[in-house]
Design brief:
The chain is α/β, with parallel strands linked by helices and 453 residues long. Helices cover 29% and strands 22% of the residues.
Length: 453
Amino acid sequence: MNQSKGMGNILITCERKVENMEHYYQPEIECASREQILAWQNERLVKQVKHVYDNVPYYRKLMEEKGLTPADIQSVDDLHKLPFLTKDDLREAYPYGLVAVPLTDCVRIQSTSGTTGRRVVAFYTQHDLDLWEDCCARAIVAAGGTKDDVVHVSYGYGLFTGGPGLNGGSHRVGSLTLPMSSGNTDRQIQFMTDLGSTILCCTPSYAAYLAESIHEKGLQDQIKLKAGIFGAEAWTEEMRRDIEANLGIKAYDIYGLTEISGPGVSFECSAQSGMHINEDHFIAEIIDPNTGEVLPDGEKGELVFTSITKQAFPLLRYRTRDICVLTREKCPCGRTHVKMSKPMGRSDDMLIVKGVNVFPSQIETVLMNNGYAANYQIIVDRVNNSDTIEVQVEMTPEMFSDSLKEIAVKEKELVNALKAMLGIYAKVKLVAPKSITRSEGKAVRVIDKRKLY
């Protein structure tokens, strides 16, 4: 079998015979045995630690503070010895402090979409870009993509990783690629209908907005979409079902972060029961976010990644702040790489209201289970030294009523449902359809006014 770039002189084996080759971009890797995956990880981790120690003074100092040298890391079993990296480290080392190769070897940067503090800037060699695009190609093929598809990329381009990542992955597969970027919804729909887009790549909130716009224009019968690859923001299973029903597609999750590479760190297969992590490039751990203790598979905690093939900006034990679960249960798709659950929230963005941990995804689940669309905002404030939380929710056109009494009844129903989920009182304010600003990128779900004080 052909070896992928960066595989080294390692025999690539498959755990089982692959019957439907078209469902895998790199079947010899995606269906490799657990023993083979561990062998790749052990070899690459050892090399990566030495690479970082020798070339990144910032990280070498962190290791030396723990009394570590590369000789102390002989396999994945030693990974827990290494120090964590956080976004604060990236900001402190900005812009070049964590670059592990000469700048003349770097061919691109990407940056986070954050708006506070110093932005995180990630660097890529051509080798890094090639491997990143391979990961995105695996995601597209897992969603049924082939060279016969038209891949409609509505993630943002430029510094944001979404557009460039899926764009490159689509090229790898050989699909016709529409580099739409975000915004200009009328043009999006025109190209979607005129060019017969079959796979949509964007944020889930924008997919919901596109579906809404398509229905308003009465163009459902002219849409040829069969699948969507959605990521870059949290979304619930209820929102997935809503998008699938409104666009007539199968909706696949994709996960990534600029610090590690971008989208394609993990992706969903046809089972839609978690995202396969590309373990030939990334080692995943789950830790207790408070103690840093590594937790066993199946326990909920904070996701930590180590890049083992990236050259320019390789992060070791990077704390993502995303809360999820890892599972190695056999997947019906045939892939053998570990799966991560859909992130259940973030340890840093988690809202603490009246001493209770509140995740926006919990609120979204309640709203959609009660027939509301995923158009809402959560407003947290502090009044007379006491936390308050208000959820503003758009009514659907079918629900809309001029009767204040009817609206009050619906609000009370949601108040009770939210209290059952969250354990605290949340005020509910039902608002008219389309009164909450739509997002063409990441949706703004939370406004925490306490941060202004």
